[in-house]
């Protein structure tokens, strides 16, 4: 395997190929950093441009956009408190909190370095375990997927900062909101109350922009003395903080492996990779209560996790012909348009493409790191923009982005509505993260459960008889019991000390 891999490096490290990979990464970072756009949209727009390109240029360009789009979301997430892409949701929660404390350079530095490490570690997984891991992932069934999602929601709720009950309620409310609208399976409307406005449901983009961007603007307007950030960021400051990510080697490794595995599961996505890595880090952290209020470990976990999903998602795409994400569908389409069919025969029939995808991914991660560091001097000026100018600009970007996504002005009203909801939740000290996670994971959990029940003839028993799903249910129960057990243990220790 090493010989063709080295040959693919020789092919990719040609000036023309490197130029196209670099261009793809730069465009991906820009689109990923602008709320409402994203790398997936750019890949779709650029697909026709790859028709006349040689195979190696087309794959390098699209993979560059893929990597840059996933990574770029952390810039606006940290500097503006608005995730540029769904993959940056968890980074935004802690990164923007650090920026408000004057630690924007540190947050950006940790996030960029964690992105690079996560991408490169997932590249090693891609190189070593492409075919074996892909075969394991195909053995998971719908009941396993459902319990896996529920474990993620329970983890983030019961390891929340203060009130697990509030957090769990917020998570299930997010799931409920995700069910509103027309149900494709039953061909009926749910919770629309006869309103045509609600029949199409709530798209993820207006909900996320409302919960983060609008809530942030409303909070700033309610506290005008806190509107101006005192943070300043220079390239020198960011570079000086680069080593901080390596203070958490276990977190980096675990989050990269979790992200790689999540990416391996078809149809999951980088946002869920970030969620799962975040919750795993919180479950093992010495100070889990700091998550959500500016934790360095949280940024390491979410950024290493979401970038690692890209390498993981490429595994089933090139080894089995099963796209691991929406971006992989576009990448597959580009290969098919070049008369190349991804799948088990790809490594034998087109080894240059098989290893070229792997090599392009490694190069794209290095370029991503360089592009993001060198562009921070421009991006960071956003922090020093007067709030009277910044707030309308943020609002304009959000409105234009949310309307242009589906050409629906109603989405703007949805965004404002969820902004009010986010502001209310913040004032009532209800954590926002479980709500957003519930909304994102809800459709996945529901779809997997309904598919599982249809395949089992309505029998729920496999949920507890299948080894994987039974183990995950047991983990859910243990996580829910842990706060009460730890409280009893703490109380007993205090009594022993007093005695």
From TrEMBL:
Keywords: Membrane, Transmembrane, Transmembrane helix
Keyword Transmembrane helix: yes
Membrane is among the record's keywords: yes
InterPro entries: DUF112_TM (IPR002823)
Protein name: Tripartite tricarboxylate transporter permease
Native species: Alloyangia mangrovi
Transmembrane segments: 20-49, 61-83, 103-131, 143-161, 197-218, 257-278, 329-347, 353-376, 388-406, 412-442, 463-485
Domain named DUF112: residues: 18-437
Source domain of life: Bacteria
């Amino acid at each position: 395997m090493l010989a063709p891999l080295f040959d693919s490096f020789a092919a990719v490290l040609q000036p023309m190929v490197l130029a196209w990979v670099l261009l793809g990464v730069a465009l991906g970072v820009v689109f990923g950093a602008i709320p409402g756009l994203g790398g997936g949209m750019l890949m779709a727009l650029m697909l026709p441009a790859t028709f006349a390109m040689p195979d190696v240029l087309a794959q390098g360009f699209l993979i560059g956009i893929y990597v840059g789009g996933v990574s770029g979301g952390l810039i606006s997430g940290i500097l503006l408190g608005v995730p540029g892409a769904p993959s940056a949701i968890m980074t935004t929660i802690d990164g923007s909190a650090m920026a408000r404390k004057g630690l924007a350079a540190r947050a950006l530095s940790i996030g960029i370095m964690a992105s690079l490490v996560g991408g490169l570690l997932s590249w090693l997984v891609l190189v070593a375990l492409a075919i074996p891991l892909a075969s394991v992932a195909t053995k998971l069934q719908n009941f396993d997927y459902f319990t896996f999602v529920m474990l993620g929601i329970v983890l983030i709720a019961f390891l929340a900062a203060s009130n697990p009950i509030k957090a769990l309620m917020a998570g299930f409310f997010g799931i409920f909101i995700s069910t509103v609208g027309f149900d494709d399976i039953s061909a009926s409307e749910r919770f629309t109350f006869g309103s045509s406005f609600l029949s199409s449901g709530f798209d993820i983009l207006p909900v996320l922009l409302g919960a983060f961007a609008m809530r942030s603007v409303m909070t700033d307007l309610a506290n005008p003395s806190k509107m101006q950030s005192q943070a300043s960021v220079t390239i020198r400051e960011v570079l000086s903080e680069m080593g901080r990510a390596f203070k958490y080697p276990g977190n980096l490794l675990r989050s990269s492996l979790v992200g790689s595995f999540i990416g391996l599961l078809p149809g999951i996505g980088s946002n869920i990779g970030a969620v799962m890595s975040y919750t795993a880090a919180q479950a093992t952290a010495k100070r889990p209560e700091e998550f959500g209020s500016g934790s360095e470990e949280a940024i390491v976990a979410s950024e290493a996790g979401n970038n690692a999903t890209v390498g993981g998602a490429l595994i089933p795409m090139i080894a089995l012909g099963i796209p691991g994400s929406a971006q992989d569908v576009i990448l597959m389409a580009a290969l098919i348009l070049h008369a190349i069919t991804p799948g088990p025969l790809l490594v034998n029939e087109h080894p240059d493409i098989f290893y070229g995808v792997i090599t392009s991914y490694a190069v794209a991660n290095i370029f991503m790191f360089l592009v993001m560091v060198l562009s921070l001097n421009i991006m960071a000026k956003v922090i020093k923009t007067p709030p009277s100018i910044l707030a309308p600009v943020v609002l304009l970007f959000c409105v234009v982005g949310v309307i242009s996504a589906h050409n629906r002005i109603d989405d703007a009203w949805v965004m404002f509505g969820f902004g009010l909801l986010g502001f209310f939740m913040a004032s009532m000290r209800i954590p926002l993260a479980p709500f957003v996670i519930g909304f994102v994971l809800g459709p996945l959990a529901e779809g997997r459960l309904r598919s599982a029940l249809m395949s089992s003839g309505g029998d729920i028993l496999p949920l507890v008889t299948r080894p994987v799903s039974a183990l995950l249910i047991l983990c859910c129960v243990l996580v829910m019991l842990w706060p009460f057990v730890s409280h009893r243990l703490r109380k007993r220790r205090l009594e022993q000390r007093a005695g």
